[in-house]
From TrEMBL:
Pfam families: OST-HTH. This is HTH OST-type domain-containing protein. It comes from the Bacteria. Residues 187-248 form the HTH OST-type domain.
Amino acid sequence: MVRLQQYELLLKDLVARQHVEGPAEALLDIAEGRSQAVAQKTLGQIVGVFTDTVFHDPDEDIARFNDRVGEDEPAWIGIGFNLGLPDDHEQAVRDELTALVALRNDLVHGFVAQYDLWAEDGCNAAAEYLDAAYGTIDRHFRELRQWHTSMMESVGLLRALLAQPEIREHFWPDSLPDGAGVVREASTIADLLRQAEAELAEDGWTRLDQAIDLIRSRQSDHTPRRYGCSTWRQVLHELRPLFAVRREAGDASTPGRTWYRSQGSVPQG
């Protein structure tokens, strides 16, 4: 059963990454949403998604993609992974995956009822069945791992391409590659923090939690993650030449607070 779970998790990861498409600025959120949706599916469901997508003719995706993108459209990115197999091999894979799902269901729902586990002969027969089942599952797992490895190698090449400065500047002018932080003082997220500061400042300082609420109400798509950061405090840290930050410690009854102000601004009062 452990090998079967390994197979299911690997297949879900492959399917989640197999096709992601959308506006450049929302691509990370779309990918995360796809991963969450895939995680909720059963093995039978995910096998169905896999066979419907990974054997899909990529030319159809390209044609649809070209029809989708127009001169006035925002930057649109589509990333896909397909398996090109001869028709007879493709059908064989489909049939074997259907049999694998049936084997999984038999192991989970029918195994105990099929064998007399209180008798030696029944135990021996059950052990032989489990050995054969493991061999089948392991063979599928090894094949899937080869496909997954090939896909991840392609993903690595794509990441290297997207990390090139001219590509980043074209598609994501406000941000750097994941983990690199905010790109510059002119980025949109810096402007949003300034706008919040102009409206919410108290004695020259602005509460970060209030600024976050205001930004979310107006520009919810501009999140720390979009700029390679995990939290808003990290955004301020990356923009430390632009903003000064102070932290108020909390206690048992009052949570701590983070405040910021533009460097060079003078607190009033």
